[in-house]
Structure formats: structure tokens, C-alpha cells
# Entry
Amino acid sequence: MKSLTPADAISSRMSVRAFTEEGVSKETIIKLLNLAARAPSGTNTQPWKVYVLEGEKLQDLCNQVCTAYDSIAANPELAKEFKPAYDYYPTKWFSPYIDRRRENGWGLYGLLGITKGDKDKMHAQHRKNFTAFGAPICLFFTIDKELGKGSMLDYGMFLQNFMIAARGEGLDTCPQAAWNDYSKMILPFIGAADNEMLVCGMALGYADQSEIVNTFHTPRVGAEEFTTWIT
Ligand SMILES: Cc1cc2nc3c(=O)[nH]c(=O)nc-3n(C[C@H](O)[C@H](O)[C@H](O)COP(=O)(O)O)c2cc1C
# Structure
């Protein structure tokens, strides 16, 4: 395999939402995790803790979370019982973030032929999160609850390193905050201690290039727009 330049690895990373069944060796995952751990962190605290799920264990967790997700759809009252440990998103959305969020959501659904009000199809698409989009590996990342906000910055660098390093091995990823609602099921399942909080999950594997969902490429605001030069 031809090695990618850092720029190519960064630009070719995208959230892949359909994977082939081809597995990833433990050796490769350890290589990626060691590369990810080269991320900087405040005073080198290295706040990451990782759980790798595959095979029957992954299938078991996916089944349990899919069942919970379906039960909430059948009885929305149950949603109250499933809350993430931290706010990834604001409670009240505002521009320009809400606009980008909508553009992203409807862009993806539009590509998949899902229209407004098509609740069953939306449910089915979102549910794929809880199958790790068919990936053979799903990683779960936790952090000690007592750490400060800065450690979440460190964590982001670790996660990005992991995703970029995965590209270097011809692998793809999808970071997944969707799992966070089910942390009360996931944390005991993976054997996390009481002081751990779920940061997010991540699907890892080989992209299924025949799936239209993987043709979804997201735009970015250009540097001129978000940068101010003070001279
Ligand atoms: C921490 C984090 C959590 C995310 N959670 C989900 C998720 O649960 N499900 C999903 O389909 N995409 C998820 N995404 C992917 C974003 O939607 C995606 O990064 C964004 O739309 C930009 O697209 P790109 O990753 O293809 O460049 C997540 C991304 C990040 C960084």
C-alpha cells in the first residue's frame, strides 16, 4: 500500500457509515493506539482509557443497545432514563451552528432518500450507529470524571490522531457520540470503574465503497472566514 502524506491522510478522513466485514488485527489496533497516544496532553496527563470490542461481545452489546433504542421509539417517556454523562451539544441551539447541523443532517438523509417526517427511515438510519455501522471493531473511550475540561481537549487530539493513523493503514472510522446516551448500559458491559465517564465510541474497519452513504462528503468553512489577522 502506498503511504499517505499527512495532508492526504487528514483530507481523506471522513465519517464512514458502512463497513465491510473484513477484520482488523490486534497488532494493527495496538499500533494505532500507540500512535494516537503520541498526542500532547496538559502536563502529559494522558487522560485516555480505551476498550476494544469485537466479535460476539460487540454483537451482544449492539443487540442490547438496539433493543433499548427501539424501546424508546415505542415509548418516548423512556428517553429520560438514558442520558449522556456530559453535554456534547448545547441545550439550546443557535446560528450558525444550528444551520450547519441541519445542513449536515438533511444532506445525509437526502442522499439516502429520507425525507422530513419519514420517522421510520430516520429511526432505522440512526439505529445503524448501534451496530457500529457494521464495522468489525468498535472502540469505547472513557475518561476519569474528576479531570478538568482541558483533558477533553487532550482527548480530542488523541481521537484525531487515531483516525488519521487509521487512514495510514487503509482503515476508516466513524467517531460516535450516539452511544453516549446508553453509557449506563455500556460502562458496566465493558467493565469500566465508577470514576469513568464515556467520552464516545468509534467504529473502525474497512469502508464499504459500494454503499452510497460513504459518498457523503461534508463541506468546511474556509480559513478566511474563521480567521482574523491582527497586524
Ligand atoms: C466526537 C464526535 C462524535 C460524533 N458522533 C457521531 C455519531 O454518533 N454518529 C454519526 O453518524 N456521526 C458522528 N460524528 C460524525 C460527524 O457527523 C462528522 O464528523 C461531521 O459531520 C463531519 O463529517 P466528516 O467526519 O465526514 O468530515 C461524530 C463526530 C465527532 C467528532
